Amino acid sequence: MNRDLESIRNEFPELERYELREGPSYQFELSRREFAQVLGTGILISLAGQSIFAQGANGSRQTDGADRLHIDTSGIVTVMTSKVDVGQGSRTQITQAAAEELRLPVSRVRLVMADSALVPDDGGTAGSRTTPATIPTIRKACAAARELLLEMALREFRSENSSIEVRDGVVIDPATNKEFGYTDLAKRDDLNVALGKRARSDVAITRVENWSVLGRPTPQVGGEAIVTGRHQYPSDIQRPGMIYAKVLRPPGYGSKLISIELSGAESMAGVTALRDGDFVGFAASTSARAEEARMAVAGTAKWETAEHPSSDNLYEYLRDHSSTGGSRGGRSGGAAKGSVPDGLAASKKVLRASFPIAYIQHAPMEPRAAVAEWQNGNITVWTGSQQPARVRGELSAAFRITTDQVRVIVPDTGGGFGGKHTGEVAVEAARLALAAKRPVSLRWTREEEFTWAYFRPAGVIDIAAGLGDDGSIVAWEHINFNSGGSAIATPYEIPNTRAESKSCDSPLREGSYRALASTANVFARESFMDELALASGSDPLAFRLRHLPKDRLRTVLEAAAERFNWSARREKLKGSETRGIGLACGTEKGSYAAACVEIEVDAKAGRYRVLEICEAFECGAIQNPLNLRKQVEGCIIQGLGGALQEEIRFANGRILNPRFSDYSVPRFKDVPLIETVLVNRPDLPSVGAGETPIVPVAPAIANALAVATGARIRSMPIRDGVFRSV
Amino acid sequence: MEIEFKFHLNGKECSVKTDPRRPLLEVLREDLALTGSKYGCGEGQCRACTVLIDGSPAPSCVTAVSTVQNRQVQTIEGLAEDGRLHPVQQAFIDEDAMQCGYCVPGMILTATGLLNRNSNPSRGEIIEAMNGNLCRCCGYGNIVKAVEHAARLVKERSSR
Ligand code: FES
Ligand code: FES
To answer: Nearest ligand, CA of residue B61?
Structure first.
């Protein structure tokens, strides 16, 4: 056995799993030679701060920033980023952005994403940060490369013609018809000498009105690999000599392993069986064989179980286990205005209500998966994670090695939705690979994903509000237990407001989810807005507009209402007991969404069905209308799941519905008529669109149901003893 | 206990020696290195693992490998012919019917099975036939359009 491996093994501590702490983010410098192997010959360009450096792939390095671009001699430009694509379309959109600035067609740009050995650190993929933060950085780097091409071309032409431009990756001298393109640039090994160190703070990115690739409908990059089954997701990675693993899970949360007899598995030919602390895993030539090994010894395990609360009394539990401040949403929503007690005292009518929000799970189509391979004490892991730097940190901590010894590669992954921020599967696969001395593939089952991944936080939201003599809102108080602080501050103009997000001792492991707490906070707020509108005898649309400043939120609300024909429909459906309409709006992460819905109710059966959803959405300048529509529609339909039916139930430390047969998610038949209004604002910076469109869906449905039935359901999912969705 | 099985896989004779109870999905992925068929649930609920058995869609995760003995199995890898995409594959690209794409191979095979028995399905028939396939990115709208488009492409190709 290799020396390094031996020493790691001796040192190996109990696996540190299931911690939600953040790992540090690091730079990884691969050697020059390896770089050239991966990318081929050509030049590499780094953008550190505002300086650009270029040099031949075999030259010495003088840059401190990691390389951002590689231009090969066939004229293909490779762009590198630590961002991942989990289905939100970042690959396509970043490719477009690079192509735009490089003046190349999309087909000549290759994107290397999330390979810690190759890419500069743009951070993880979360919080809708790719569009507002990463894309501008990449555009600057590509614009700098374009300027470099231009500059070298002018030198080559011995021209000072300032009107010459880069087109299709080539510069043409109008005087001589001579050409100089990226292909020629890639062959220059004297760039460093020629240019020296130059500050490029003047590099300008392309203005929106001049966009020719961005802003255009661009179909998914890599689509052919997907439809042919050729694309390898993390669970599809194959390595020479690779074997497959299964893990023995505890019988419930908090259970500790006292003892297990592994000999029944160890005696099976070709099986690696391992216990390390509470971790017990098996690896063999097939999953079935590993599972056989697991089953052979599972019965011998003795566990010390722990008490765990049940979802039946979840909301009391959260209230009883709360503390003020330090919300997990990062914001405690402390913003206060005026005095809520004074405002309520002066109100003509005061209303109060509580909104319980269930735990739900992301349930990405591809459960967690990792392939781990050790070589000379260094490890390479292919895994699906939105936070590769964190995974690297987890691996380095678990195996007591430096991050330099850990390479994490994230192939485009089968879904995330905020649910893949952790590296537990990578650590488990790595542990077994170390024991088996072979590459190991570990793919969680759906039940494991439903049980041992994490959940969107549950919560209870208490709102109190007062109406003045003129029917306007004078005071508003919003307290969120556990689900977090995002979008907790009201966007409405109210003289006295207070919002607070309380941390609770969550019975389940929780983490981010598409739009995180804004879904819960907007649900409660927008439901309650309708209750207030009703109490003041106003049209819910007019009531909102009355309290909304003239801004972007108001614009999308008006756009949705107009497309939906809100006023006419409201008139027509007045008094209907079988049909109802509702609306809601919200903003988070700099984008704005409003939805109108129509539902159908069968009061006798206690069933309702969503017939139509019309949503308007605005996220600044639209970079790819095709992808934007997919994200908005995806949010709407995924949002229907949380609105109508999804709810994690648990008791005795176990999830009671950890399968799609028990936990239903939206299917083809659940999709109502959907209309989207994409409001384009070329005058405003583009922001992310993969999250916020989810927020108005649930409250608009609850509001429609209240109109049709007179029954106000304040829980998510929207159902009670009388009504539930079809 | 291992037994030798023969079946036709993507038009070629194929033989594996393995435990007959193993799911076809696992044998395809682990023994035959065909990873285009995906695992999503293992209980017949998501159809990410769909393959065509004698032209009809079946969830390979709950199909024991022994049951395909001497039958025709087609996976996503075997759909394109001579490097030319199958009309359903082409339609998914044309309609941009994918986000993460993990559900797409299963969607394409279910749709192919539908078109095998009904060359001109209505929207309702498409939804009915596809309802067993989950897409957690919830790209259902474009997928329905892709299947409608695929039906047109099939017709065009066969009339040529
Ligand atoms: S994996 Fe076969 S139906 Fe889900
Ligand atoms: S595209 Fe992601 S699951 Fe369908």
So the answer is: 1
In 3D space, the residue among A314, A318, A358 whose CA is nearest the CA of residue A645 turns out to be A358
CATH for A321-360+455-725, among 3.75.10.20, 3.40.50.12780, 3.30.365.10, 3.10.20.600? 3.30.365.10
Which of the following CATH numbers is that of domain B87-158: 2.30.40.10, 3.30.1340.30, 3.30.70.1400, 1.10.150.120?
1.10.150.120
Indicate whether B68 pLDDT > 90.
yes
- Among A238, A366, A446, select the one facing B102 at the smallest CB separation: A366
Asked whether the beta carbons of residue B136 and residue A364 sit closer than 8 angstroms, the reply is yes
- For testing contact with chain A, the best of B82, B108, B138 (most A CBs within 10 A): B138
Does any ligand 2 atom lie closer than 6 A to the CB of residue B99?
yes
Which residue among B18, B42, B137 sits closest to A445, beta carbon to beta carbon? B42
Task: Kindly give, in sequence order, each residue whose CB lies less than 8 Å from that of residue A377, ignoring residues fewer than 6 positions away.
Answer: A2, A3, A4, A5, A7, A8, A401, A405
Kindly list the distances between the CA atom of residue A534 and the CA atoms of A32, A351, A356, in Å, as whole numbers in the listed order.
68, 11, 21
- A70-82 tens-digit pLDDT: 888 888 999 999 8
**A235-305+368-443: what fold?**
Aldehyde Oxidoreductase; domain 4 (3.30.365)
* Chain B nearest C-alpha distance from A366 (Å): 6
Determine the pLDDT at residue A98: 95
DSSP tag of B27:
I
Q: pLDDT (tens digit, 9 = 90+) per residue, B37-65?
A: 999 999 999 999 999 999 999 999 999 99
pLDDT value of residue A186:
84
Tell me the pTM.
0.92
Please state the φ and ψ torsions of residue A376, each to the nearest 5 degrees.
Answer: 50, 40
Under an 8 A CB cutoff, do A223 and B96 touch? Answer: yes
What pLDDT digit, counting tens, does each position of A146-157 carry? 988 998 899 899
Is residue B88 lining ligand 2, measured as CB closer than 6 Å? no
Binned at pLDDT 50, 70 and 90, residue A46 comes out as: low
Closest-CA distance, A706 to chain B, in angstroms, reads 27
Of A220, A229, A236, the CB nearest to B98: A220
The ipTM (two decimal places) reads 0.98
Confirm or reject: Cβ of B40 under 6 Å from ligand 1. yes
pLDDT for residue A667: 98
Cβ proximity of A519 and A353 under 8 Å? no
> Per the structure block, which two tokens stand in for B104?
């797409």
The whole-angstrom distance between A77's CA and the closest CA on chain B is 24
Q: What angle do CA A556, A560, A564 make, to 5 degrees?
A: 170
Closest residue on chain B to A361 (Cα): B136
Instruction: For chain A, give the percent of residues with pLDDT over 90.
Output: 77
3-state secondary structure of A477: strand
